Amino acid sequence: DIQMSQSPSSLSASIGDRVTITCRASQSVSRTVNWYQQKPGKVPKFLMYTVPKLQSGESADPSRFSASGSETDFTLTINSLQPEDFGTYYCQQTYSGPPTFGGGTKVEI
Amino acid sequence: EVQLVESGGGLVQPGGSRRLACAASGFTFTNYWINWVRQAPGKGLVWVARIRGDGGRPQYADSVKGRFSISRDTADNTVVLQMNSLRAEDTALYYCARAYADWHGLDVWGQGTTVTVSS
């Protein structure tokens, strides 16, 4: 199975900061990585796919959230961090085999 | 309204069985894969199983293969996760979530149902 590892596992940032979360796959997953946000006690929410607008249902504000990467290395960037952006972010590969999640990155404001 | 509603959680003894159900409404059920994802208390998301819109290609995480079985009933728009030989490490909040294709993200999630495996 493909393993997904995220870094950092947690971070603290200030309002207005630019935040970057990294996700690394144990083997190539092309560009097939999805990102989710989960707030404490809440249901995970689909943020976005690596290729913008290729899927419906994305909830990320495109003016602040961007996703990039290919093969094994992927990033989720939050430009100008807002108070509502706190929570835990997960990457997930849906390229091959079990659609595995990364371990999560907790973002604290 | 597009909705997924899980049911069936509860307390079960080690070695026991539990049947979870995911009821879908507000969308064309057969067009979507339905996934089960679990989250142990204080831990991250773990994918468990999924099944295609037509009921084909059930797939499982290695940790549940041979113990869990996923199926769907298109007559009443429900996906069932039958969990047997339950272990303490299966204790989690179980979510069902849909995906339009096997490579798509999980764009709609249910509220989850909690399974606790304990004597």
Largest interface: A-B, 28 and 26 residues
Strand order of the largest sheet of chain A: 2-9-8-4-5
Please state roughly what percent of the residues of chain B sit in beta strands, choosing from under 5%, 5-15%, 15-25%, 25-35%, 35-45% or over 45%: over 45%
- How many strand units of chain B? 11
Major beta sheet summary of chain A:
5 strands, mixed
- Helix count of chain A equals 0
Give the SSE string of chain B.
EEEEEEEEEEE
- Give the averaged pLDDT of chain A, no decimals: 94
Q: Give helix and strand order of chain A, one letter per element, not per position.
A: EEEEEEEEE
> Based on the structure, what is the oligomeric state of the protein chains?
heterodimer
Q: Compute the gyration radius of chain A: what is it? A: 13 Å
Largest sheet of chain B: 7 strands, mixed
Task: Please specify the SSE layout and strand pairing.
The complex is a heterodimer of chains A (109) and B (119).
Chain A: E1 4-7, E2 10-12, E3 19-25, E4 33-38, E5 45-49, E6 65-70, E7 73-78, E8 87-93, E9 105-108
Parallel strand pairs in A: 2-9
Antiparallel strand pairs in A: 1-3, 3-7, 4-5, 4-8, 6-7, 8-9
Chain B: E1 3-7, E2 10-12, E3 18-25, E4 33-39, E5 45-51, E6 59-60, E7 68-73, E8 78-83, E9 92-99, E10 108-109, E11 113-117
How would you describe this structure in keywords?
A: globular; B: seven-stranded mixed sheet; four-stranded antiparallel sheet; about 50% strand
Description:
Helix content of chain A is 0%, strand content 44%. Chain A is built from no helices and nine strands. Helices cover 0% and strands 50% of the residues of chain B. Chain B is built from no helices and eleven strands. Chain B is globular, with a radius of gyration of 13 Å. The mean pLDDT of chain B is 96. The interface between A and B is medium-sized, with 28 and 26 residues.
Quick summary:
The complex is a heterodimer of chains A (109) and B (119). Chain A has 109 residues and is mainly β.
